[in-house]
Please model this.
Amino acid sequence: MKVLIVGANGQIGKHLVKDIQDHDSLKARALIRKEEQASYFHDLGAETAIVDLEGEVDNIVEAAKGVDALVFTAGSGPHTGPDKTMMIDLDGAIKTMKAAEQAGVKRYVMISSFDTRREAIQSASESFAPYVVAKHYADEWLRGTNLNHTIIHPGKLTNDDGTGHVEAAAEVERGEVPRQDVARVILETLVHDSTIGKEFQVVSGQQSITDAVTSL
Model:
């Protein structure tokens, strides 16, 4: 299975590309914004595609040709304004869904926010609310597509070393989770078709990642 990772140069994305390249039956194509970001992925043996998510859908379609799955891990980042949040986390996400459909890619995995329900928008801080809104509507759009999708809602992300153990369910108590473990959850999601059509929250826990994903 060849996987296009959107947002590959992000912290989760880099972990994921490495994990995919280390897997016997998976290969990665990293979608990045700049040529100077490519060397990291080439050193791993991964393909790259240079595409700006604020550009045209057709550019994403070209990058998605010949892949079997698409993972959306991109984000505008915490230091940008609401305008970039809308352009990347909402519009960019929806364009990748359209591109996947046009390129014949059926499998789609979305890395969302921990809680994107309407109640979460109302309770979010003024600075965080635009991000939750963007993720809410991106998730809604994905549910309405014909893509074989999975939506992953990670807890508060950390740069701690992964433990290989998480708690995953439709709803879990808020908590933290290392980005490295989120990448491993994505990989297990890709190789287990039982996750198609499901969405779940994930935080650090006691269950092995493989067991947590397969028991959803």
The first strand starts at residue 2 and ends at 6. Residues 13 and 216 are 23 Å apart (CA to CA). The radius of gyration is 16 Å. The helical segments are 11-21, 38-43, 57-64, 82-103, 118-123, 129-143, 179-191, 209-214.
